[in-house]
Amino acid sequence: MEKLHFPMVHFPFFLLQILSLLLLSSAQTVPTKYFTNCGSTSDVTVNGRNFVGDLNGAGFSIIGPSSSVSAVNSSTDTSLYQTARVFTQPSSSYELDAIDHGIYYVRLHFFPFKSGNTNLANALFDVSTTDFSLLSNYGVKENSPAVIEEFLLTINESKFSIYFTPQTNSFAFVNAIEVFLIPDKNYILDSFPLINSRGLAGIADGVRSQALRTIHRVNVGGPQTNDILWRTWTPDDGYILNPGNDKTCDPYNGVLKYDVLGATVYSASDIVYNTCKELKSEFSVITWSFNVGKSTRHLLRLHFCDIVSTKDAYVKFDASISSYFTQIIYVEQLVTPYYWDFLVDSDALGLITVTLGPRKDSTNKNAYLNGLEIFEYSKKLV
Question: What is the DSSP string of 190-224?
């Protein structure tokens, strides 16, 4: 099992030091566009976001024939899911105008209600951009709760289009769309260590030119929570393979030191970094297992914030990825958020595991993890 060594902190921050990039201020800037309430004349405010009815919206165009439908006796109490836009022809799209260049979150909301003779659960369709396939043969089952599909893309054009293409004899729909610029310009860098079944396979470039689909976002040792960029973090308990080897860290209630080791207020919420799981004993290891796409490349982001060490005994430990590769985690900074990024090629089983274990050369034989995210590479269109 190969090990990769970099001084002090995580790989992205190492690159930031080399390139002398400026870190962001801790001041929070909340995106205000684009949030679209599809198929509606009404604006809806949800968790601080103003979703503009697409029949009244400015800054975007609806391309191709479409219609709007409204829910009848909807089972959801969220007004955002009371309407939808339906597409019946290929190459129909939402086109955003005068968009700023940078890294964007793109979220698509789907809730399959019935409206007259239209049952949105019968829809089967593809979603794409000019360069990437985002969703293929996609549909949402009847009686399903609202589904949010999230993607990370770098947009360098003045216009950005999202295409909805129905399958034969079917249609496409969408209830709401979010496309907003991430305030952290260095949220995703371009080069990361690549891990496959042979271990470390070098450094892979061109990550910023990819489209990444969010598969897992986990708050380790903490509750379900939302953050400043409206991301949902779910508890980790259901992913642990060896329950009983872990224990929940005592939560930290003080002020975190952002913008020191690379993580900013946009990396994750305070609740993620204020909580963690640690080893139950110095002889144990913790393993989390995640279902992912088979034989597909993923971006794995491990979030750390040392709330378990003391100034006299910092923790040094191993983080292993799918038994192919081990990274030494060590930083002499308390309550300071940081993260490690890796590109991981999944196997034919479609699993990625992360294992934490103690090291013999650590005075404090412990290990901890605060959060984890996994993003899947989207298929690039030829």
Answer: S-EEEEETTEEEEEE--GGGS-EEEEEEEETTS--
